[in-house]
Amino acid sequence: MKSPKVIYVCRECGATSIRWIGKCPECGAWDSYDEEFQGDEKTKNPKIASNNKAERFSELQLPTYMRTKTGMEELDRVLGGGLVDSSAVLLTGEPGIGKSTLLLQICSELSRSRSVLYVSGEESKGQLKLRAERLGIEGENIYLLTETDVDTILAECTRIHPDVIIIDSVQTLQSQKFASAPGTITQVKEGAMAFINYGKSSGAAVFLVGHVNKEGGISGPKFLEHMVDAVLCFEGERMNSYRIIRAIKNRFGSTNEIGVFEMGDKGLVEIPNPSEVVMAERPRNSSGSCAGCVMQGTRPIITEIQALVTKTAYPSAKRTSDGFDHNRLGLLLAVLEKRMGLKFWENDVYINVAGGIYLNEPSADLSVAMALISGITDKVIPDQLIAFGEIGLAGEIRAVSHIEYRIKEAVRLGFTRILVPNKNLKNEIALPKGVTLTGLTNVRELPDCMSGKAVKD
Questions:
Q1: Which of 173, 238, 319, 349 gives a 20 to 30 Å CA spacing to 188?
Q2: Residue 212 CA: distances (Å) to CA of 113, 216, 225
Q3: Alpha-carbon gap, residue 313 to 323, rounded angstroms
Q4: Window from 79-93, 102-116, 203-217 with minimum mean pLDDT
């Protein structure tokens, strides 16, 4: 019998080599090659006769997928309406961000109508029980299993027949068919594929918890993201109580939705109105602050953009942004310098988006520009003013989408002066008494709006 073949696989990108290499030539990672044993290919992949045949597209039956509510509307929103049967969901995030807490909390609601198997390879049953009591979780249909062996877990799945399987985490899984350590490319791939196949064949929904690497990406092989139906990222700072969950892949819903939570003593608490939370701590009568509105899927969120502009003490002015694209900030500064003659080149510029929200759409340009102008001129923007619109390189203000939703949210939170691109005023928008809608065409009109003058109502 031939001895197993030894190869080396990069745990970051999956590149292979016949010998150990200190630095991966594909992705540049250092000390990332792990030893893997490969048996005889004929033994590993025997040819099996299959009755699967091609069918005409017009003759295919439309499948019906059942969705189950998780008990958290914020999570259901990101999933597209609930957890889909036979689906595989990968949940990733920084250590200590609250992934296990979130999954334990949804177990309580899921267990009312479904049986749930929670498999932990990182905690003992006693630790899980203590956390469940702290969170107030009870349920006769919740099963706990502390195991890392894939075959043992699958045997329990066959015995219990759970409707929902939670694997915490996929990096701890180990198959006895391979001699490599848990967390390596082969073990993660084979372990994840085993439970995805089981879920597809049995109709069970599978949650896989994944770790992240030091760069913030999903740890393990890249094809792990292709194998699952949805990839959810749990974001936030451990020292900050707010958490955001967003989908970067979803076969059963949109990838633009976000869910907002707050970490408390009793676990994660949903925040159905994040706009109110963000604006509740907004400082009054302070320069460098402007309210804006961004769309996260179908949800409009009011955000506060803060700008601090100070004289630089360095040969080259400093640019720092948190929650806003750094390259986009440089573009806006160049437009304001060129079109308005503002001397940002001799000042340090700091941009911060309150609440930990990341602005990833162009509609935030106008509110960021107004915060920058307010910061450099030290003029206070009225507290009841809000602005949203895209800024072009010529200084023109371009139209944005979903204008009605943005205006409705702004009015709900009490804003009475709304600055929008002039192109968006083509359609008549009903406004309550006391609310003024102003259309803008160029950034040169912004100082007049900040001083209270009406440019074009």
A1: 238
A2: 32, 6, 13
A3: 25
A4: 203-217
